[in-house]
Design goal:
The chain is built from 19 helices and 6 strands. The protein has 441 residues and is α/β, with parallel strands linked by helices.
Length: 441
Amino acid sequence: VRAEPYLTGLIIGAVYHFYKASRANRAAVSPAEDSWFPRHRLSLPWHILAGSFLAGCACMTKGPFVLITIGAGFLLDWIWGKEWDQFRHLRWWLAIVLTLVFVLPELVCLYLQFDRHPEKLVYGHTGVSGIRFFFWDSQFGRFFNTGPIKGSGDPFFYFHTVLWAFLPWSLLLYAAILRRPRRHVPGELICLGGALASFLVFSLSRFQLPHYLNILFPFFSILTASYLYGVHRRGTRKTIRILQEVINVLLPLLVLPLCWFFRFNGWLLVMVVVAVLAIAPFVLFRSQDLSAPIARSFWMSMLVFAFINFIFYPAILRYQAGTQAGRYLATHPKLRAETFSDLGGTPVAYLLREAPISYSFEFDAPGMVVKLPVDSLPRIVGGIIVFAPTSFRDTLTAKGFRVTPIQHFDFFHTSQLTGEFINYRTRANVLTPWELYRVAH
């Protein structure tokens, strides 16, 4: 499971409470900020405690690098506003100590699991320190590409990733970041600093994945909303209106060809529904104000996301062979009872060490899944269940096993879509056949 969905809420929650703490018992610099400034005498310790707790949970989720996202914006805000006294406040030293206290559960667990057991083999090494991995290898190791998990980063990777990942607001986001910051907007510089510092770290890192950006979406959203709220020049509003209307037309025009080329069940009906729903916001929101194209953009984003999550990806996941095989076993208990071997009373299915990895089968299959070399497969009366590419049938037969296919599954790496796969005419050319086998001696 990705850590970012949890991390997103923890980070923005910590920033919110620390922002409240930073404004506690201070004078508002503008009427817009006044309602944001805590006045109750107990508000400061509460916000420090809550912010530290959420920051500690964020650290336990992904490591200490998240403190850059949480803290960088405050440094920018204080320096820009010349709030030098913030650096001397006891509240922030207390927050650091409390955050470390809230991280202790993970540090203790890592010590007990790894540091106390130097004999454990981890990534081919013994004497591995879990605490060192937490503070260094899992973070700086990825950044400098010296850890066990390596990548080949592109410094411009996230610049173009934002363009599609933050649709339909990505162009507005760039406009919000490039404009001159305005100090009277509550927390705007904090969002800007947190987003830009993290974006820079991600871009310079050698290990990059698109979903890392998810933790910055709350900051992006606040910056974009603040920008839209503050736009008053007629020419700028007209430009925004044109840009958003172009996006509002393009989004459904990208969905309709997907229906046509993929040809999932009921694709023609889906095309009609999408077309009707794409026209609807132009009928419902007809104001000449800027709110009309923004409302249409929201409508279109919900339409596209609903299509992707409830129609398109469920159709694609039919080709995630491991998931389909796991679900097949889950719905055939008699088959499992007849052919599963037992490991300490736990049902077991097998993957071949020589075959490609299938994490989805390990996740969805009922019972345990064990990876073994072909030569080490147990020779049990009645047979065992093996999930492997169809091409491995001859390998198993050559080793003296009797192989009986149970069910066929088509496989494609669904997180790396290609035009050949999406096009129903060429899809068969890029599918890899996998099988559930009953393997007996």
